[in-house]
Specification:
Strand content of chain A: under 5%
Number of helices of chain B: 11
Shape of chain A: globular
Helix content of chain B: 25-40%
Keywords (chain A): Membrane, Transmembrane, Transmembrane helix
Pfam families (chain A): ABC2_membrane
GO molecular function (chain A): ABC-type transporter activity
Number of domains of chain A: 1
CATH architecture of the largest domain in chain B: 3-Layer(aba) Sandwich
Strand order of the largest sheet of chain B: 8-9-10-5-11-12
Radius of gyration of chain B: 24 Å
Largest sheet of chain A: none
Protein name (chain A): ABC-2 type transporter transmembrane domain-containing protein
Structural class of chain B: alpha/beta
Number of strands of chain B: 16
CATH topology of the largest domain in chain B: Rossmann fold
Order of helices and strands of chain A: HHHHHHHHHH
Number of domains of chain B: 3
Number of helices of chain A: 10
Subcellular location (chain A): Membrane
Radius of gyration of chain A: 20 Å
Shape of chain B: globular
CATH superfamily of the largest domain in chain B: P-loop containing nucleotide triphosphate hydrolases
Strand content of chain B: 25-35%
Oligomer: heterodimer
Chain lengths: ~260, ~325
Amino acid sequence: MSLNRVKAIWWRHAYDLKHNVGRLFDTFYWPALDIVLWGMTSVYFQQKAATADIVLVLLSGLVFWQVIWRSQYEVTVNLLEELWSHNLVNVLATPLTIYEWVVAVICLGFIRMFFAIGFGLALVYWLYGVNILQVGWMMVPFVALLLMSGWYIGLVAAGVILRFGMRIEVIAWSGVSLLAPFSAIYYPVSTLPEWGQRIAAWVPASYVFEGMRVVLSRGQIDQAMLLKSLGLTVIYLVLGLGFFWLMYQQRRKLGVSSLE
Amino acid sequence: MPSKIVLEVNNLTKVFDGGFSFRKMKRNEPTLAVYKVSFKIHEGEIVGLLGPNGAGKTTTIQMLLGTTAETAGTIKYFGKNVKKNRPELMQQVNYSSAYAKLPWLTVFENLMVFAKLYQVEKPEERIEMLLSEFGMSEYKHKIANALSAGQLTRVLLAKAFINFPRILLLDEPTASLDPDIADSVRKFLLKQQQKYGVAMLFTSHNMAEVAEVCDRVIFLRKGKIVAEDTPDGLAKTVKNCTLRLWVGDGLKRLKAFAQGRGYPVKVSGREAEVVIKEDEVAAFLNKLARHNIKYSKISIDKPTLEDYFIAQSGRENES
């Protein structure tokens, strides 16, 4: 065994770290995210455990977070797949417009999300005997809002990848998680510190998860929450589309082929 | 009747913004990649786009495809501005590059995706025909990434023809192909030109290929068109030719005589190779006779497109 060759590989990755912001970001991002997310959940359980159906709250949060995660993931990873296979120029040199591409990946995300959630719901029922669908159609508007949230996050992440290239591909996996602590997936917004609550007020998913907990506990829809979430989601979706289009135009200025 | 113009490019210019350097804390210098390039391609015409590395060939092709935004200038296909009619016009355009790749799908699946993107009728038939033309039928169900470079190039060429294009943009289409396969590809391209009037814009580093295939050549240097002519026309602008003599007696005298007049000369065995202006050959041979230098065989290599390329590239290095 040659220590020099081992060192060469070590240097190869050390150099990579210098150029690859994503890897550096990764080192601190995930531990911080887990600590915040599960720390807040623990605080909530400590305060309110006796009054809530913990298993239902946790599992429904887990399953419905997949809606947002899956729909954004499909947008970004489908773009990355074209880049990984050096196929983006081939595709964009056809009559296809960038909006057609967006519609295609969004629809694809919807279909895959449908199967992923169906599988998740079935697994939760089979393993834990919890039927998240017990509240019926009332879940539909919430799922629709989460789906749209995934789209705008996916469009922003895809726009950033288009502009800065594969060195920032980590955003495809981590972008949406940045919003997780402020989305009140497993705990109410009131558990967050003051500054966190101010951020959560601008995160449409926080109203969705709060609203879903109301549905699960009281069997009612909080319409105000739903409307707030819808308003913000529509605004972000329009902004997300605009951002993606702007980043695509920026990439065209630099040349799409330089991405591959 | 003059044939229709399928591609018209006017004053096409591309300046790449240098971007902001955080290390230097200032903007980098912009790069002029293509400057006021104008040309037309007629139906059924094959035009070569030549130039040394960094001349702006690939940038020009990428602008024609719309995957790189032009800084200035206009691009018209079939008389229509591509900016306003892109989906309609790109329906009749296609492209292939030796540098492109394909996703982790089988050859057939990949071609089917493109057939659908171009809304080709009876796509299976078209794919079968193209795979057969390019000798790739047996690889139909093979994953594209598992193909050799030459096989992948042929699949990419099949992709380029999938939509019955009226104009093809080919960026080094035969790079990485074996000579026999490159030859069959050239024959296929010429057949498409003759049979269907497909026009082509063609970049290649193989000058013999360009001379064989192209009706006209546009030579780019540092983003500008420096010459436009037929391959023969460009070659003729190179004044020097290579004179080969198999010298029986007087080899040393020949060498001294040629060098004394400033002609580069190489000697190998009994063979002397003199680089000389074409119109001075007769006078040179006359003088050899007067000096009693005898040779048994003679050949004159006329300037080729490659000589033109080397001369132009040399100029770039000097400037």
